[in-house]
Every structure is written in structure tokens, then in C-alpha cells.
Amino acid sequence: MKRQTTSRGRFIGGTAAATALAFGSAPYIMAAPTKEFVIGVNVPQSGSYSDQGTDQLRAYQMAIDEINKAGGVMGVPLRASVGDDQTKADVAVDNARRMIERDGAVMITGGSSTGTAIAVSALCQQMKTIFMATLTHGDETTDINCHEHTFRRYNDAHMSARAMANELIKRYGTGRWFHITADYSWGHSVYDNLTAVVEPKGAKTVDNVLLKLGTTDFAGALGKAQAAKPDVLVITEFGKDMVNCLNQAATFGLTKSTKILVPLADEYMAKGTGDNFDNVVTTAPFYYKYHAAHYPAAKKFVDAFMARYGTPPSNGAECAYVNMYQWKYAVEAAGSPAPAGVIAKLEGHKFQATKGPEYWRAWDHQGINSVMVMEGIPMSARFGDEWAFARVLHEVDGEGVAVTQGQSKCKIESA
Amino acid sequence: MSLESFVQAAINGLILGLIYVAIAIGLTIIFGMLRLVNFAHGAFYAIGAYTGLVVADHLGFFAGVVAAPIVVGMLAFGLDRVLLRSFYGKPPTAQILVTFGIALVVEEALRLIFGGTTRQLAIPDWLNGSIAVAGLQYPAYRIYLAIAIIVVVFAVWFFIERTTYGLIVRAGVRDRVMVQLLGGNVEAASTLIFVLGAALAGLVGVAASPIYSVDPGTGFAFLIPSFVVVVIGGLGSFWGAVVGGIIVGELMSISQVAFPVVSDVIIYVAMALVLLLRPQGLLGESEMIRG
After folding, report:
1. Which CATH architecture has domain B3-277?
2. N or C: which end of chain B has fewer CB within 10 A?
3. How many other CB atoms are found less than 10 A from the CB of residue A69?
């Protein structure tokens, strides 16, 4: 009996220690510091959003290699300090702090969640370091939690909901809506925006089941949805969580009995859900198939990415790539990576990269560019390209759907 | 929470619990009989899932289900012979470090071979669809999976409790030297138990992959709750793993619907309560395979 008690204590202690080992990791450095500009690339390489983080990392590496091959930024080569933020705010902040303090990073970039983006943004503001946020879709990043040193080019939930509004109202407007929502800032932001758009038009919200990031079994929420018999099932989940949720929804028969809305998707999520993504309405800021066919710079980027990695870039990867070049532009225009000059050069800067004309709004540092409203297609309609997941319904001008200064709670520190 | 939602959540919990039962039984028999704390158990789940995906791609779903436990069992055999055998009887910290290391190596190897992309095994059409359960339409595949797990659990119990090999292993746990003196091959029986536990995890890996997406880190997602199951049920207790698995499944499922805020922590609260009130686990004292 005594022996067993000792084993149990050690066993449980060991379990705790090993759990800590499993979920804690430090960023790694790709090269020793020399005369170079260090870029802190802080992306999830594990956890629910690891597909998105890993693809962003590919784009960063490609952009940095291209820039270095072309002579660097003001003749100075770039070096990446890479960290796995695990889609956890505390880990993301620890990584960013190490990148700035230990590695001398002059710019932090990356992310796949609004939760991590807000946390890193606050740190970068405190440490006076530029943060080019990448995959963050919740409004807060450039609204109530906006900061002088943070720029976000990715569409926000406000833009997505308004861009989809006509399509949503046309298809689902007066129905009964059931929401399954990721329980953190992004999920709440998407839910608030969607209900604000459709409820005044007659949509009735039946329920909103909030589930933690990293949920693997959605049967409870889906069973509840099945019992509620809604007209519309809104899955505000991202990455692997969305893949699990939609695929499990299909086994509950919900993809056949109910119209499905996934407010934000990317190539990895659509590939992971295959035929279950058929007819799903969604948005994205970039879709490689569409943009490569319509914009020469996008085609060049997509072709280079596919040649290098064998897969097309996801929308997060595209944002990562453009973020690197936008920072390069600002540093060279300012003649220095010092944040004040970079901020001044980015604010109001109009440019065209892989999409149509776009610009950085000066008062909240939100990138204003188009929103793609799309509808999923079955695997049989993808003609051998399993990544080509959707037909584009509308390319909506970002200006008309972005939050206005009067609506926003953003108060940039220097403004 | 309506009665319909509660019934639905209870059925979900039972099936989720059975999945944990099948994983936790492997953990508990390996610990109970070999005294090995096996953090590589989640890796066996992941290898099973990937093996199933690859084989099913070429030879169909059932070939994948058959191949996964065989491949995992063979790998476990090699691992036991080459590495783990020398860690039997060593302090748990050494066992945790080596098995955790194996889990990390497997995760990175899977990432290297298959990439980090999320994958999912398609359910064959004839296993798809829904079945009426307690007045509710329920995914047929989950029902079939639950039945299959119940059959497998009883088969494992029968093997341990009713066969000569099972007898040698159980006796070997009590008095290894005496069994060897009586002519019993304890080493072979121990290897068999390790292979059986690992193969079971591999089987669950492939069988659950039409429900839960698969990625290189997928093993860890199931490993920690499975350890909670084992602690609640009682370390080394076969039926403890069964009871613990169902409790954990029900707690996770019902809390997800009724009290989503606590669904993240409720199983750990339950584990803490069990440790406070009954440190040996719910069935930790009365089982035949406990050492």
C-alpha cells in the first residue's frame, strides 16, 4: 500500500512536469546576431492554429530571402527570430519580449489570433517596437485596443460582416440562427458584428454556444443545434477547431438540414473539411485562385510560393508577405527602422500589392483593402486542385464596410 | 438545459468516455503490469491515425483500421525490445523522461513525413448517416464506434483474466521470480502486454480519426485526459479505467452544454476531488491486476 502511494505521488508529479514540458517552449533563433535587422516572427506552430502559423512562417521566410537577395533593407540583411506563440497570449508576449530584448528585433510580426495580437500589441506599445499584426480578425486589434505601434492589414470582423450582409440577408435573413462561437475576443467580435447585421433584418438568434479554443469534440454543441432545428448554423471557429466542428456537424446531418455560415476561412480549413465545405458561405481577405487570376503581382507571389513550397499560399501567408514588404517600404522611405519614422511613413500610405488599391488608415492603423465573400464548392468541382475551395461571390471594397472613426473606440496614443 | 439536450449530451459523453476508456486501458494495463509510466501512449494513438489515413487512401477504410494496430504493435515491440525494457522498474521520473522524449520524436517525425496540415479520415458511405437513439437522430458512426470499443474492452479483459498469458502477467506482477522459477516466461508476457496496450491506442487513433482531425500533435490532446481517467479510476485498475473514462466523458460533454465556462477544468476538479477523498482512485484497491 505504501509503495503504491509513493508511485502515485511520483506519477502525478511527473504528469504535471511533463505537461508543463509539453506546453512550454522557447523561440529559436535562426542565426547569430550580426549587422542586420532582426524581425521577430511570432506565429503558432503548435495547437489549433498551427496550419495557419506554419504557412505564415513560409511566407515570411520567402519574403526575407527575396529581400536579402535583392540587397536587404537599406543594404542591411534581415534575420528572423522565430517563436511558436502556441496561440496563447502569455507565450506570445514572452516570445515577443525575448525577441526585442535579447535578439534586438526592430519589428514584431505574425500571430493567428486576436487574443495574442492584443497582448503583443500592448507589449510592443510599451517597448516602442513596430508590430505588423498578421492573422487577427477581431475588431479590437485596431479598435478599442489599437496602439500607435501596431498596424493590422487583415480584414476585421466588422468588415467581414458588412461585406457579407447582403448575401446573408438574401439567403438567411429571417431565419433562426444558432451560433457556435470560439470563446475569446475574436469569436465575441464576430458574433457581435453578425448579430448587429442580421438581427435588425429579422434574424432570430436561437442560441450562442461558447466553446474554448482547442475544443476537439463539438458533439454537445452540435447536439444542441440539432435539437434547436435552426435555419442557419454559424460556426465561428478557426483552424483545426473549425475543421473538427464542421466535419462533426456533417455527421450530425447538419450540413444537409441547415445552411452553414463560417464567417472566416482559409485554404487549410477548407481543405480539411473537403466536401463538407460545399455551399458554406464565408469571407477571406485573399484567395490565391482569384487574386492570381486578377492581379499580376498576386500571380507572381502565388507562383513563387507554389514553386518553393508546392502548396498555394493561404490568406494569412499573403498578409505576412505583404506586411514584410510594407515594413521594408516604410523603413527605406524613413531612412531608418526607428518606429517614429516607420509609423509616419505607413500612416495614410497608399499602395497596391497582391490585391487592388489599398491603404493604411492613419487614425486606427487598419489596412483598408477588399473583402472576398465566397461560397464553398465540392471536391468534384475543384478539378484536381484540392485547395481551390470556393467560388467568389463578391469582392467588396473595404472602404465601404470598415468601421468609421465615429463608430470606433480607437484612440491612438499619438493622435 | 432541456431534457432533449441533456439526453443528447449524456449520449455524447458516453461515447467520448468510451474513446477515453480504450486509450486509458492501454495506459493502465501497461502501468499496472509493467510499472511503466508511458507518456508515449499518445504517440501510439497518432501513429495509428496516420497509418490508417495512409492505408485507407490506397486500400480503403477497413484496411486502414486493420493496419493501424498491427503497425503500431510492431513499432511498440521494437521499442520495447530496444529501449523501454531497460526502464522497467526504474524510477517514474526516468520513465517519464524517456517516454516523453519518444513522444516528441514521434510528433516531429510525423510532421517531417506528413507535414503539419490537419487531416481527417473519411467515413465510408455505409457507415455514415444517423440512427434514432432515445428519440434523437444520432451519427451512426459514433454508435458503431462505441459498440466496437465495448467489444474490444471485453476482449482485452478476457485476455488478461481468462488466458494463460494473462495469468502469467498477473502473477509476474505479484512475484516475478516465482513465476520464472515455475517456468513462466514473464518477459515475453510483459512485451505482449506493452504491444497490446500500444496497439489498442493505435486502433483508437484510426477509429476516432473520422471524428477528430489528425495532426502530428494529436496524441497529446488525448494523452492528458487519459491520464486523468487513469488517476480517477485508480492506477493499474482495468475497471477503474472504464469507470473513470465514462465519468470524464460525461463531465466533459454535459458541462460543454450546461456550463461551458467550467468545461475546460471540470475533469481536473474531479481528479482533485478523487485524490482528496480517495487517493487510490475509485477502484484502485480492489482490482485483480493491480500490483
Report:
1. Orthogonal Bundle (1.10)
2. N
3. 9
Interface with A, mutate which of B8, B110, B111 (most A CBs under 10 A): B8
Of A4, A220, A253, the CB nearest to B9: A220
pLDDT of the residue at A26 = 39
Residue ranges in chain B modelled with pLDDT below 50: 287-291
- pLDDT tens digits for range A264-318: 999 999 988 989 999 999 999 999 999 999 999 999 999 999 999 999 999 999 9
Name the residue in chain A with its Cα closest to that of B100. Answer: A18
Domain ranges of chain B: 3-277
Is the pLDDT at A30 greater than 80, yes or no? no
A14–B227 CB contact, under 8 Å: no
Among the partner residues A8, A247, A271, nearest to B279 by beta-carbon distance: A8
Q: Does B32 touch chain A (CB under 8 A)?
A: no
A81 phi, psi to nearest 5 deg? -105, 115
Q: CA separation (Å) from B202 to A282, B28, B61, B65, B197? A: 36, 15, 15, 9, 9
A16 in contact with chain B, both atoms CB, cutoff 8 A? no
| B52 neighbors B281 (Cβ within 8 angstroms) | no
Q: If you measure CA to CA, which chain A residue comes closest to B214? A: A240
SS3 track for chain A: CHHHHHHHHHHHHHHHHHHHHHHCCCCEECCCCCCCEEEEEEECCCCCCHHHHHHHHHHHHHHHHHHHHCCCECCECEEEEEEECCCCHHHHHHHHHHHHHCCCEEEEEECCCHHHHHHHHHHHHHCCCEEEECCCCCHHHHCCCCCCCEEECCCCHHHHHHHHHHHHHHHHCCCEEEEEEECCHHHHHHHHHHHHHHHHHCCEEEEEEEECCCCCCCHHHHHHHHHHCCCEEEEECCHHHHHHHHHHHHHCCHHHHCEEEECCCCHHHHHHHHHHHCCCEEEECCCHHHHHHHCHHHHHHHHHHHHHHCCCCCHHHHHHHHHHHHHHHHHHHHCCCCHHHHHHHHCCCEEECCCCEEEECCCCCEEECCEEEEEECCHHHCCCCCCCCEEEEEEECHHHHCCCCCCCCCCCCCC
Residues in B closer than 8 angstroms to A247, CB to CB, are: 120, 211, 213
What are residue A234's DSSP bridge partners?
A179, A261
Q: Measure A24 CA to nearest chain B CA, in Å.
A: 13
How far apart are the C-alpha atoms of B38 and B228, rounded to whole Å? Answer: 13
pLDDT digits (tens, 9 = 90+) for A42-93: 999 888 898 899 999 999 999 999 999 999 999 999 999 999 998 889 999 9
Phi then psi for residue A375, to 5 deg, are -130, 130
Question: Closest Cα to residue A338, out of A155, A134, A73?
Answer: A73
Q: Which residue does chain A place closest to B234, by CA atoms?
A: A8
Q: Is B125 on the interface with A (CB under 8 A)?
A: no
CA dihedral A251→B244→B100→B191, nearest 10 degrees, is -100
- Residue A150, beta-bridge partner list: A131
Longest dimension (CA), chain A: 74
> Could you tell me if the ipTM is greater than 0.85?
no
CB-closest option in B12, B116, B263 to A212: B263
pLDDT in tens, A89-129: 999 999 999 999 999 999 999 988 999 999 999 999 999 99
Residue written as grid cell 492570381 = A292
pLDDT for the residue numbered A43: 95
* Residue of B2, B12, B95 lying closest to A220 (CB–CB): B12
